[in-house]
UniProtKB/TrEMBL annotation:
Source taxonomy: Bacteria, Pseudomonadati, Pseudomonadota, Alphaproteobacteria, Hyphomicrobiales
GO molecular function, one term: oxidoreductase activity
Residues of the Nitroreductase domain: 8-197
Family from the record: Belongs to the nitroreductase family.
Keyword Oxidoreductase: yes
One Pfam family from the record: Nitroreductase
Name the record gives this protein: Nitroreductase
Organism: Bradyrhizobium uaiense
Domain of life: Bacteria
Keyword terms: Oxidoreductase
């Protein structure tokens, strides 16, 4: 698929078929994605791929902890709640998703269920936990590199018929993920990518987020036109 078409059609998938994803397919995706740009070719990334019983344990324990009111315990520093224009964009996509799923504003049980779906990584059959070498902290360069790898994974997966959602909720309890996936302490858990074959009957999968006009965030300097 041409790159432009790939980017335009790709969307976050929040409902997956109960169909396994083979290790060979994941390896092929990572083989492509690892060509992502990396500062000074440092390649600070590690990918821990979970499926089956280990993934079920992570999502169960992550969800149970959050239901019980445990505080999030992520390795990376959180910005806290969004405010201003960023909060507005967050609310806009939530309205679209709840509208597609028929979840009313005052339907607290269904809204809570939606949140829990995130904590269990939307029941995807595979989760790719992305980490980087702790020795590179503090600094944003390795975060940038990991973001490039992450998007490469998402695009390579989509080109092979697999949908995904970059899912911070899935690693809200990074201590649990680290224990189950046997991730060494010298790696920082940044995020995860829930992946599987899209369920086209799941209404939220048709939702696409809005993007601001270029004129709102792009400035051109030195162009004659």
């Amino acid at each position: 698929m041409e790159f432009e078409a790939l980017v335009q059609t790709r969307k976050s998938v929040r409902g997956f078929k109960k169909r396994p994803v083979s290790r060979a397919t994941v390896e092929e995706i990572i083989e492509v994605a690892k060509r992502a740009p990396s500062s000074m070719n440092t390649q600070p990334w590690h990918v821990h791929v979970l499926t089956g019983a280990p993934l079920e344990e992570v999502r169960r324990r992550n969800m149970d902890e959050m239901i019980a009111g445990a505080k999030a315990k992520r390795d990376i520093v959180s910005h806290g709640e969004y405010q201003g224009v960023h909060r507005g964009r967050q609310v806009d996509i939530a309205k679209k998703l709840f509208g597609a799923m028929g979840i009313a504003r005052d339907d607290k049980p269904m809204r809570q269920d939606w949140v829990l779906r995130g904590f269990r990584q939307f029941d995807a059959p595979v989760s790719l936990v992305l980490t980087y070498d702790r020795i590179l902290d503090p600094g944003a360069v390795c975060h940038f590199d990991l973001g490039a790898l992450c998007y490469g994974i998402v695009l390579a997966a989509w080109d092979r018929g697999l949908g995904s959602v970059i899912n911070g909720q899935g690693i809200m309890r990074s201590d649990i993920v680290r224990e189950v996936a046997n991730i060494p302490e010298d790696q920082v858990i940044m995020t995860c990518v829930a992946m599987g074959y899209p369920d086209d009957s799941f209404a939220a999968n048709a939702v696409r987020s809005d993007r601001e006009a270029n004129s709102d965030f792009v400035s051109y300097v030195g162009f004659a036109d």
